[in-house]
Specification:
By secondary structure, the chain is of the alpha+beta class. The chain has helices spanning 21-24, 28-41, 58-76, 80-87, and strands spanning 2-8, 13-16, 19-20, 47-53. The protein has a four-stranded mixed β-sheet with strand order 1-4-2-3. A hairpin with a 2-residue loop joins strand 2 and strand 3.
Length: 116
């Protein structure tokens, strides 16, 4: 889950959980996930982006930050919605943890059946 706040600024700066996003996401692909939203929207204006993210792994967090930035840009400028929607940035990942069922060890794991 990512909470994103964008404000217009003199230069582009992205801060994730109080750290610079280059330090928070050490892999180039994850950093590209975060900045690709601005590239898709073709924005020339600079923003200060502040993000608080938790849950999941680092790859999932980078996608959550990208989704949050897309939502924030959509609120900032309604005309960007069409560009972001076509590129798939406004699509939420609906997967969630399946609940544990009664009589099973986990959601689907059952005890091994033995004949004797």
């Amino acid at each position: 889950m990512a909470r994103v706040r964008i404000t217009p600024a003199a230069k582009m700066h992205i801060e994730v959980n109080g750290r610079d996003f280059e330090n928070y996401f050490p892999v180039a692909e994850l950093r590209r996930n975060v900045t690709s939203t601005f590239d898709a929207a073709e924005i020339t204006q600079k923003f200060k982006v502040t993000v608080k993210v938790n849950g999941g792994g680092i790859a999932g967090q980078s996608v959550a930050v990208s989704h949050g930035i897309a939502r924030a840009l959509e609120i900032y400028d309604k005309e960007l919605r069409a560009k972001l929607k076509v590129k798939g940035f406004l699509k939420r990942d609906p997967r969630s943890v399946e609940r544990k069922k009664f009589g099973l060890k986990k959601a689907r794991k059952a005890t091994t059946w033995s004949k004797r």
